[in-house]
Amino acid sequence: MFREHHRERIWPIICLTVFLQLFTAAVAKAEDGYRLWLRYDPLPGEMIGAYRPRVTSVVVQGRSATLDAIRAELADGCTGLLGGPVPVAGGVDRAGAVVVGTPQSSPLIAGLRWGRRLAALGPEGFLIRSVRLGQRPVTVIASDGETGALYGAFHFLRLLQALQPIDRLDVSQKPRLQLRVLNHWDNLDGQIERGYAGRSLWDWKALPETVDPRLRDYARANASVGINGSVLNNVNASAQSLSADYLRKTAAIADAFRPYGVRVYLSARFSAPVELGGLKTADPLDPEVKAWWQRKADEIYKLIPDFGGFLVKANSEGQPGPRTYNRSHAEGANMLAAALAPHKGVVIWRAFVYDPKPGDDRAAAAYDELQPFDGQFAPNVLLQVKNGPVDFQPREPFHPLFGAMPKTQVMLEVQITQEYLGQSNHLVFLAPMWREVLDSDTHARGPGSTVAKVIDGSLFGGRLTGMAGVANTGSDRNWTGHHFAQGNWYAFGRLAWNPDLPSRQIADEWTRMTFTHDPRAVESVARIMLESREAAVDYMTPLGLHHLMWAGHHYGPQPWWDKEPSPVWNPVYYHRADARGLGFDRTKTGSNAVSQYQPPVRDRFADLDTCPEKFLLWFHHVPWDWRVRSGRTLWDELALRYQRGVDWVRGARKSWDDLGGVIDAERHAAVAKKLSVQERDAAWWRDSCLLYFQTFSQRPLPPGVEQTRRTLREYMAKSLLDIDATNH
Ligand code: GCW
Fold it and tell me: What is the mean pLDDT of residues 473-482?
């Protein structure tokens, strides 16, 4: 009787509890983008059915921070993806175990005697194989190093997430590049230079006592795509970051990243011996300066034994450097390299230097300044070269230094954050842009001498290799501001791991991991992504135009601007429009920057008839009535390209709208809103550029190009950023 009575009273409580649980589950599942591509939501039912017997338990023998991370990631990941518990087990007690580790950590793996194969793949490489252990079919993920085992675990999860077969696995991978590094342009006050996704993830005030748990997720995300380094502070560096106080804070971050194989690096201000050490000079040949850096290096490595090294922006845009003391870049880099060498640290020296001397071509400056020093850099120095010779434009030809420094370890720098590409408002998938530079043929050792082969060391040799990406992450809940900008972080990691990976594959796997498995939707989203960069080039800077962005913040167009103190910060410097035509003559009759390329490349670019149309106005000043390949005049073609860019955004909006029922409502709405801004911006770009260039061409807009909506004066009055509060 009592029981019955009790039951009646307890029912409403049970209902309430169930309701609350469902409610919290729904809230927890908020699609705010925080989970990135590591969502681990249940896969389609038929795939769960296929995978289930092959993924029954997770066996990670041994203990260490990395092994614990592997165990947790695999158990969570498999449990989530397969819609039911995949327990952690101590040994192989059933078919379908997933066994992970190194020969050192795992007797099971040691027993397989894969030592030689594993050694050949190195501590970051891995094998994933379907084998039998004690008659039971299992999957083994093995590496010579724990980080490699972690990468293997993420690779296995990615196979599931991309619905790939896992029954007869024989995967063998190792990274093609050694340094796969994010460059954070984060200032110590929490602001991010060229950051569009909130504030810095590093809370310097709270460190080292409090380490934001979010840093673990940051490190996980990086490890999941093989990123193994993170430069914490802006290349426009404050010496403060090398002070004892800040080094302790950096050490706390390094501790949080270490289990995930992410090493920290710091940008070093070249004048730190003066600012921090009270020395009179930072001359790299001064013995006291050398000794100061050596002591600093010793101090750092005591706190952070696996510290990666220094990134240096020297004598560029007001930064101090060896040139200040009449020393060369090589002398500056080698002095720092000597301080780091005993600790196995590296110096990453940036090639982004340009001297704004009147009459110089900015695109030629880095080559002039650095190429003569080929062969003079110490063995632990890498030269970090931006993809193109100017500055992260929507399109640039590859940087001529890639084909011109055979005796130097050259690494590639790309910009993940979209400084010149619509910041966090425009959907622009950057893998195709990076592919374009990686696939560019420098002809340095005959045909086939691609930039990818230069940076992976296979063309010129070289012990150290790498690729850097200027990060697009920040404190925004979805990490990158635009949901699709996550795809650029992802793509950077995947390409740094394997610079041959097709953009299509990257787009496809990211879409499945991040949004949906619906085949129609995957197709449509991947198509939008793959077309987006070309579209941005069309509506911003078609046919080789560049640097037309609003001065300072670089959002929106300002082709008319000529008021910056340095001529090379003015758009008019780059487009050179006049009554005759448009474009920068970089051939013999102009700056002759084209001569910095190897002869076959140089000749192709220098000849108006063979120059690829996408670089036409980069290398040539072209008459308005010049007939381009379509048979149209330059002016008509230019106008139609701008229109094509706008039309593309309209089409993308429609395609996205059609996915309304397939993509979750929260992210669908957020992206839709951004796409509407992108359409407005694209039309704004078209109208202001065409109206302005028309003042030179004096020709009407061809049929098919919409009439402009405002007057040139109105476009000149305010930047898009000023009329738009949604971009932060
Ligand atoms: O792209 C330009 C940016 C600067 C940046 C510089 C660089 C960190 O406008 O903000 O400074 O390049 O790469 O050093």
Answer: 98
The question of whether 8 is a catalytic residue gets the answer no
Q: Annotated catalytic residue: which of 391, 396, 585, 687? A: 391
Structural domain harbouring 94: 45-173
Q: Which of 269, 315, 391, 413 to mutate to test the pocket of ligand 1 (most atoms within 8 A of CB)?
A: 391
Task: State the burial class of residue 520 (Cβ atoms within 10 Å of its Cβ: 0-12, 13-18, 19+).
Answer: exposed
Contacts of 624 (CB under 8 A, 6+ apart): 580, 581, 582, 633, 634, 635, 696, 697, 699
What Rg, from alpha-carbon coordinates, does the chain have? 27
Is residue 28 included in any domain, yes or no? no
Instruction: Clarify whether residues 216 and 154 are in a common domain.
Output: no
679 given a catalytic annotation: no
Q: Among 112, 145, 173, identify where a domain stops.
A: 173
Sort strands 346-350 and 309-312 into parallel, antiparallel or unpaired.
parallel
Residue 23 lies in a domain: no
CA neighbor of 433 nearest in space, from 510, 530, 501: 530
Q: Which of 131, 153, 173 is the last residue of a domain?
A: 173
Are residue 320 and residue 185 in the same domain, yes or no? yes
Domains in the chain, number: 3
Closest CA to 167 of 129, 216, 195, 205: 129
In terms of domains, do 80 and 142 share one? yes
Residue 723: CATH number of its domain: 3.90.1330.10
Active-site residue identified among 283, 361, 396, 419: 419
Report how far residue 110's alpha carbon sits from residue 126's, in angstroms, rounded to the nearest whole number: 14
Tokens representing 529 are 């992504």
Q: Which two tokens stand for residue 365?
A: 């400056």
pLDDT tens for 172-212 read: 999 999 999 999 999 999 999 999 999 999 999 999 999 99
- Residues 6 or more apart from 392 whose CB is under 8 A from it? 386, 414, 415, 419, 420, 470
Return d(Cα 172, Cα 170) in angstroms, integer: 7
Say yes or no: 140 and 184 in one domain.
no
Q: Which two tokens stand for residue 1?
A: 């009787």
**Across 22-31, 293-302, 498-507, 508-517, least confident range:** 22-31
Q: Is 41 a catalytic residue?
A: no
In angstroms, the first-to-last Cα distance of the chain is 65
pTM of the model: 0.96
pLDDT at 23 over 70: no
Report helix, strand or coil for 148: helix
Structure-block tokens of residue 463: 């012990």
What spacing in Å lies between the alpha carbon of 569 and ligand 1's midpoint? Answer: 12
Contact present, 338 and 308 (Cβ < 8 Å): no
Closest C-alpha to ligand 1, atom 13: 352
Residue 609 lies in a domain: no
* Pair (107, 218) in one structural domain: no
Q: Give ligand 1 pocket residues (Cβ under 6 A).
A: 185, 193-194, 235-236, 313, 352, 391-392, 419
Residue 345 phi, psi (nearest 5): -85, 165
163: domain CATH number?
A: 3.30.379.10
Together in a domain, 262 and 325:
yes
Measure the CA–CA gap between 24 and 616, rounded to whole angstroms. Answer: 57
Does residue 425 share a domain with residue 279? yes
Statement to judge: residues 152 and 87 lie in one domain? yes
